[in-house]
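Deliverable D4.2, example record:
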Amino acid sequence: MRFRKSADMVPNFYSYLCFLERANMVVIRRLAPMIFALCLLIVPAKSQERFALLIGNQSYGEQVGRLGNPINDVNLIAKSLKAVGFPDKNIVIITDADRLSMLSALDAYIDRISSAGKDVISFFYYSGHGIANRRDRRNYLIPVGVKKLDRNVWFKAIALDDVVKKLSQLAPNAAHFVIFDACRNLLIAPVRGGKGFVPMAARRGMLIAFSTDPGDTASDEGETSGPYAAALAGELVKQGQHHLDLFQNVKEKVYRSTRLQVPWTRDGMLQRVYLSGQGLPVQTGKSNSESAMAAELRRAKEQLRRAEIERAAALRDAANARGEVADPRVLAETLQRELKRVGCYLSRVDGDWGAGSKRAMADYNLHSKSAFATTRPTPQAIAKLRTVFVRICPAETTTKNVGSRPSKPSSTSKVRELGPRARSVLKTKRTVVCRKEGLVECRERLCGGQRCPDRCQPNSGNRLRICE
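Output generated by the structure prediction step:
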């Protein structure tokens, strides 16, 4: 068919071109938001300075408890941090560090963060032994140089609260991640303290994470790393999840792998932080709704669990305030301090319930007409002493409980007198009858043949003078 040229066809041809141009503009306008979103994903946003300090201590002495995975833990975490954009020059790894090395590394790390300005991400991770001081309710990092966990361990360790305080004060504009993968179950802790940590308060712009619940211990088992480090390293490299979902997934993974260990976090971030980048959601609207409901349910369960933990901690604090302390040394030290306050104990408060402490308790029973046990400290005695606000034992009688041994009788004295009992009876202006008798006779007469150190006290000659 031959094409016929016609003048009336020219306007129709130009109308067709205008129609195509208008259609292209409509398509471009509709596709512009999608193109812009794709450009945001392809073109990186303003880069954030990222710094990390990773400390792994494992070569402890036998009296502290050797570990097998902290060095593997920090190397695994470093590998994941490099994969999500942490420069090699900004990742510092310290292994088997003593106290001086740890403090020096911390000071240098904080100086670099504070001088970097705004939009900084700080990632501090510690893997090793840690211990909590039940008296000041602080958590401590134990350097490798600590050979034994004695009473001076608090002066050899590093308080985690001090690290958190410095990070918050010297670099307030940074987003801080503080991870404490410690409280290991292999710790040998004979001192007054605990393997499990005590809860910490939230700080603005900081997420504080522990590898286990308050008061519990963390596992060090694993061929290449501990369970917490393995879960954290795996979640760090997942793109598109913010820090809340990241640590929630870490918690679920650790619990599934151990069935005992439940990580704990305290979030103070002012906005969501995407360590591995923010990607586009791939679920449908229904899936997004279901995932949002599941996340809300997890958060509600987490809040309920935290409330239960805080309630248990409050109950423990209240029990400690009433003197109901499970630790015998804490109980002994508390009772010694109370006896010292009422004038019945003059020795050093050291938590050792020895002969001096027993005599002090006996003096208190004598002058207060009480009958508390003297062979061991009891919460009932502490509760009673805390209601006393006057001096109970006279000044001249409390010297008998100083030291671990009773003073020897003078050469002119043949027997040892029970001074407090005799004087207290004489003050009542009653008729006093004194007689000598042996320890066996005293127990038979006053105690029915049983031991009663509060009433029958032998001297070097095993003879007594009883005045009543």
